[in-house]
């Protein structure tokens, strides 16, 4: 079936198909929310506990421990390094003819970092059209996956699945002092420490202010340095906070949508 492309086991919730029943059963966890592991820093979810650790290490901590011996590039995984080294050695491992296109796209996107799909609204680039499509929803405000219990909507089904736990109470952690609740145990500890114990370990070196989170201190420091790291690709305006840039970009998007509508 690897060669024929046959996928006899179909998901009843989405178009995905699988070779084995075991693969389908694992996939169904995404839809049911059962045994789903969530990142404490972003909406990323997975049904594999090990992948959460890898995700946090690579995406949020920026850890790249695998150094190329031929150049200065560092990679986040041994597989990524192995594929990168082939650029220097010229090695071309044999690939199945039926899957050559998918393999090339996978290597280009995941291991070599090639991103040919560009957002016309901001400077971001992506490895696949699907990733670009999901990103564009951040600008348009489109949320195709709507919660049936509240007005919230989400870009991805996985995000909705995680959100639904708030309504069902599944895998929820509750603060013992106030109504705050979350499905991340570490957030309960941070909440209690910051809100109820008043602990603020992150101190500004320029003034007397202290913060409960490192990210809050980082944002505060921009008020002292005057740094505005977030740049609008449309008009050149700069912003200290990414949220302000995203809000600003929507003005350009509305203008573009209006022009496109007027030209049709």
From TrEMBL:
SUPFAM superfamilies: beta-beta-alpha zinc fingers. Pfam families: zf-C2H2. It comes from the Eukaryota. One of its GO terms (molecular function) is DNA binding. PROSITE patterns: ZINC_FINGER_C2H2_1, ZINC_FINGER_C2H2_2. Residues 9-36, 37-65, 66-93, 117-144, 145-172, 202-229, 230-257 form the C2H2-type domain. GO terms for biological process: regulation of gene expression. This is C2H2-type domain-containing protein. GO terms for cellular component: nucleus. Keywords: DNA-binding, Metal-binding, Nucleus, Repeat, Transcription, Transcription regulation, Zinc, Zinc-finger. Coiled coil: none annotated. Its main location: nucleus. It is found in: Nucleus. InterPro entries: Zinc_finger, Znf_C2H2_sf, Znf_C2H2_type. Transmembrane segments: none annotated. It comes from Phlebotomus papatasi (Sandfly). The keyword Transcription regulation applies. PANTHER family: GASTRULA ZINC FINGER PROTEIN XLCGF49.1-LIKE-RELATED (PTHR16515:SF49), PR DOMAIN ZINC FINGER PROTEIN (PTHR16515).
């Amino acid at each position: 079936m690897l060669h024929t492309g046959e996928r006899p086991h179909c998901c009843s919730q989405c178009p995905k198909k699988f070779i084995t029943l075991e693969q389908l059963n694992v996939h169904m966890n995404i839809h049911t929310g059962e045994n789903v592991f969530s990142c404490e820093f972003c909406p990323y979810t997975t049904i594999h506990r090990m992948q959460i650790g890898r995700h946090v290490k690579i995406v949020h901590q920026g850890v790249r421990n695998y150094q190329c011996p031929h150049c200065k590039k560092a990679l986040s995984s041994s597989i990524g390094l192995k594929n990168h080294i082939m650029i220097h050695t010229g090695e071309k491992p044999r690939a199945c003819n039926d899957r050559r296109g998918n393999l090339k796209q996978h290597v280009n996107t995941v291991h070599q970092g090639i991103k040919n799909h560009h957002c016309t609204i901001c400077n971001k680039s992506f490895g696949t059209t699907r990733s670009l499509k999901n990103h564009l929803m951040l600008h348009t405000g489109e949320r195709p996956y709507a919660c049936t219990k509240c007005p919230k909507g989400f870009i991805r089904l996985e995000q909705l699945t995680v959100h639904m736990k708030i309504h069902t109470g599944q895998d929820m952690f509750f603060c013992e002092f106030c109504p705050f609740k979350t499905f991340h145990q570490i957030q309960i500890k941070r909440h209690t420490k910051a809100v109820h114990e008043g602990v603020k370990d992150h101190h500004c070196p320029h003034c007397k202010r202290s913060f409960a989170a490192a990210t809050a201190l980082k944002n505060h420091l921009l008020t002292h340095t005057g740094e505005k790291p977030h740049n609008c690709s449309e008009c050149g305006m700069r912003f200290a906070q990414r949220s302000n840039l995203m809000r600003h970009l929507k003005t350009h998007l509305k203008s573009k949508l209006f022009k496109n509508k007027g030209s049709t």
